[in-house]
Amino acid sequence: MSNTAQVLSQKSLVVIFAYAPSGLGHLRVTKALYEGLPKSAHSLLLGSHDQGIAALHRIASLHPLTRSMMEISQGLIPIIEDITTYAARMYLRSNTKLIYEQLTTILDQLLTVPKTVLIVATHTTLAHQIAAIKEQVMKEKKVQLFVVVQVTDDTPQHIWYVPGADMTFIPSDRIKDQLTSYGRAFNLPKMAFEVNPYPINPKLAKILPSEEHTKRHQQVTYESKTHTHIAIPISGAAVGTRFFKDIMVALRTFSPRFMFHIVSKRAPYTETFLNEALSYDFIKLYVSDQDRAVVDKYDELYLTSTIGLEITKPSEQAFKALLKPKQFGGSLLLFSSPVGKQEYDNLLPTESEQMQLYKLAAQNKPLTTQEGLNLLSEAIHWRGVRLPDNAVEAAHFVWWCLHQGILAAMMHWKMTQRNVNGHAHELTSDGVKLFWEKVADFLHQKQTAL
Questions:
Q1: 3-state DSSP call for residue 125?
Q2: What is the chain's pLDDT, residue by residue, as a tens digit (450 residues)?
């Protein structure tokens, strides 16, 4: 085992983070990995200048027709995913002029020419483009160049298979097996996949002071008079803003205890929503014009306030569910309608349990039957629950869960065999630390072999 800090802090090494602003998830992962890098390491950011990436992401996410097309291309119909993946891979690997100019300009402007360049890519676009020019850059600039890809969702999208990448970090064995099978079936170059917990900002994984954890618990206790603080991060595509507005207003009709904290980018497509939010005294905004600053504001919210709940889209499962309620970022999760193909998650209610919850909430029944008591006892194993699609129904569901003690039980979350199910190594919050340890070992082995 190499000394991680020593390897990553070598003066001859430069670490370049390659990201694209097509969604907060990619930026959030980039920041998490950056926060875990030794402070003495030499690192730079390489952001995509291709505005089409963000525009396409927004169009595909917002419109029902394009959203359906996106879901089909992501694997609902395998042959279509195979075709679109092949076309996208060929297009990206043949359109590298801009990224080549960006990367070589960065290297040319460094005061000290590095011997080794480590590129960490958190977006498929840049991962494919950089992998395609890797050999050319190494030959021209006389450097060792390694490409490490961090998969930013827990879905087996074939576009994450990046020939030429030296390491690809994947958050689950399931996705590793499916991508490996895909590469084998299409006779693609063999890749080195590394299963590692999803990267979470180490600051959010710190343990809350006991008094703050008590406050968080009080926020989801029905008998308590304290305010319930709810975070609502708006995605890079501004998906679901109408739902978020309606559920906030509806929750306030149940109780004035609900307070909301919206984290969003200020952009033309969020302007109407943000202006409406300003008219409510129970909503606080955390807004910036810059994508990276939005991620900073999200982290600062959790580090400076005690947040009890978060309403977010299901693609955040892999990110937030790994944190425990006793950690700074460990709010209880309320998942809105999914966008894109969503993953199986063993930290949530089963489909049967979720349907039982919906039924009992719709009938406004107390958890006094055996069925209800069983659900209450199982809630200790859930990090989040799914909300009904209708905002008013969702608000009633949240209020019912609060009233019946479901949320209070979830605050006592415990890892059990049900959660683990052979995947304990995927369900920890130290993914960033493990990421850099594995990368340092890889670099150490390559340097030793020279």
A1: helix
A2: 569 999 999 999 999 999 876 667 778 899 999 999 999 999 998 876 544 444 444 434 444 433 444 444 444 566 888 888 899 999 999 999 999 999 999 999 998 889 999 999 999 999 999 999 999 999 999 999 999 999 987 777 899 999 999 999 998 888 899 999 999 999 999 999 999 999 999 999 999 999 999 999 999 999 998 999 999 998 756 678 899 999 999 999 999 999 999 999 888 888 999 999 999 999 999 999 888 899 999 999 999 999 999 998 876 555 788 999 999 999 999 998 764 444 446 788 988 999 999 999 999 999 999 999 999 999 999 999 999 999 999 999 999 999 999 999 999 998 876 666 667 788 889 999 999 999 999 999 998 887
Nearest to 17 by CA among 48, 44, 53: 44
Q: How many residues does the chain have?
A: 450
- Identify the CA nearest to 398 among candidates 218, 406, 353, 348: 406
Distances (CA, A) of 311 to 170, 176, 243, 247, 308: 25, 29, 10, 10, 10
Interhelix angle 351-362/391-403, nearest 10 degrees: 90
DSSP, collapsed to helix, strand or coil, labels residue 222 as coil
**Vertex 282 angle, CA 23 and 244, to 5°:** 35
Beta strands in 217-372 (DSSP E): 228-233, 258-265, 283-288, 309-312, 332-335
* Whole-Å CA distances, 126 to 195, 280, 397: 21, 40, 41
Structure tokens at 104: 């070589």
pTM for the full predicted model: 0.88
- How much helix, strand and coil, in percent to the nearest 5, is found in the chain? 50, 15, 35
Question: What residues pair up with 286 in beta bridges, in sequence order?
Answer: 263
CA 220 to chain centre: 24
Closest residue by Cα to residue 127 from 95, 165, 172, 97: 165
Compute CA distances 187 → 180, 190, 424, 450, whole Å.
10, 8, 32, 30
Residue by residue, DSSP assigns 286-297 as EEESSHHHHHHH
| Amino acid identity for residue 367 in this structure | L
Beta strands in 34-123 (DSSP E): 43-47, 116-121
